[in-house]
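Protein 1 of 2
SEQ + STRUCT:
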Amino acid sequence: MNAVFSIPIRVYYEDTDAGAVVYYANYLKFMERARTEWLRALGFEQDELSSRDGVVFAVRSAKVDFLKPARFNDSLLATVEVSQRGNASITFRQRIQRGELTLCEGEIKVACLNVSTFTPCPLPERIREQLDAGGAR
């Protein structure tokens, strides 16, 4: 469950503010993309989870520390690591890095919700099994 998954992110002009620095909310978008690709690397597509398993994931809480700025055209790495798994939630430790330098780090908790009622429900067993087996790399 402690495997670190990562994806490359290129900073586009649209990601920046007037000073060519990444707008703070876009770090959350980068983290979301990384979690989506992590889930895909485990073998799960979110649209299929919704239609087949009747579940969706929603961010329950986010604690983010902005440490250093990323700038237009930077090549970044967005990482995902599962830090805790509950019955109906997963907590991730995530980082946005430029080389070895951590620019932003966060703890993001996502809840598993029933697609019809939007109430918490257990993680599908096949996801739990993947997490128990070590997750995506």
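Protein 2 of 2
SEQ + STRUCT:
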Amino acid sequence: MDEQQLPPDDISEEELRAAYEEQLKRVRVQDVLIQSVVSLLNLGGRKAGLAGGEDEKDLEQLHQAIEGVRVLLPLIEDALGPDAKQLRDVLAQLQMAYAREAKPGEASPPAEDEAQGPGPAQSSGRLWVPGQ
């Protein structure tokens, strides 16, 4: 925060609350969702060991970051336009890192939409699925 943005010491609680309310009026949910996706991707990179030390690796946290982005990204893709591709690419990198690190017996249960059985490509034998 800039020193210019800090409230003076003599500002009342009511004035501070009014200033906060004014800021909230300008914030859009879409902006918060975009920031959340970017934060999850950055944190996911660290938990994958891609942007930090090996001591930061945490597959459970990486999985949660991936799933969070998978849920939020469709809500903001239209607003992002061409920039959405960059976020999808980073998500794909995290998913690949997770797949490399997760051992077959430790993999998370399938997502709800995957739990209904194999899709047409997998049933036909044309889709390669690791571990199957």
